[in-house]
Design goal:
single chain, alpha+beta, 2 domains, about 40% helix, binds zinc ion
Length: about 120
């Protein structure tokens, strides 16, 4: 976190990637912080950052695990109209007080939430 210069490490990294990659992640984060504190280019696209990262041998990108985990599981909500029984699938939960059936204006009820991996 750039504001506090704390490093948060998810134990998942260690479990899934092992010690070597974990050290790489810490190196990468420290490069961000070091340059940020020195008011130099601390972002991925900055030359300062890329040079320092090369020097310490860290990976080019940070937190790939969380990003891929996010993309892996998507949630779908299934709704059914109480009146005509028409089924709807939405990517997010909807407010059933505000949204009604597009066909008959009947009330929608949440049937289930499905996790897709
Ligand atoms: Zn980074
Ligand atoms: Zn309906």
């Amino acid at each position: 976190m750039l504001r506090t210069h704390d490093i948060e490490i998810n134990k998942k990294y260690f479990d899934e990637r092992g010690m070597e990659e974990l050290i790489g992640i810490i190196k990468h984060e420290l490069c961000h912080y070091h340059l940020h504190l020195e008011k130099r280019g601390y972002q991925h696209r900055d030359a300062d950052f890329r040079q320092l990262l090369k020097l310490v041998g860290g990976p080019r990108f940070c937190t790939p695990l969380e990003e891929s985990a996010k993309n892996k599981s998507k949630k779908l909500c299934r709704y059914q109209c109480k009146k005509c029984g028409h089924l709807y699938t939405r990517k997010k939960r909807i407010n059933t007080d505000r949204y009604v059936c597009g066909k008959c204006k009947g009330k929608l009820i949440l049937l289930q939430e499905v996790l897709i991996k």
